[in-house]
Protein: Dynein axonemal assembly factor 1 homolog
Organism: Timema podura
Amino acid sequence: MEEVENIRLEFLNILKIDHLWIMTSLVKLQLGNNIIEKIENLEMLVNLRELDLSFNNIEKIENLEELVKLEILLLFENRISVIENINTLTELMIFSIGNNRIDSWDNVRYSSDK
């Protein structure tokens, strides 16, 4: 399990992200189209470059601090109302947040500086 780089678990009615800590080599994790309510238990996946949590029931962006290699974060079609807790994601190139409940874009700033 330590050597697995890609996992795709979609359309399985998964409620909670769990039991992934052994997969430290994971680079791509696709958990779209489930019923996940919270971003959690990902801190051991320090090599993750792509995370797809689209089409879930997530209300808050959280617990991503350790995923500093993350380049793609897909949170399309959730219940997120505030864009927050992504300051440590300095390698982020693609951030999909459409079709959520975001009222204000005031705290969003784009910078092309590296």
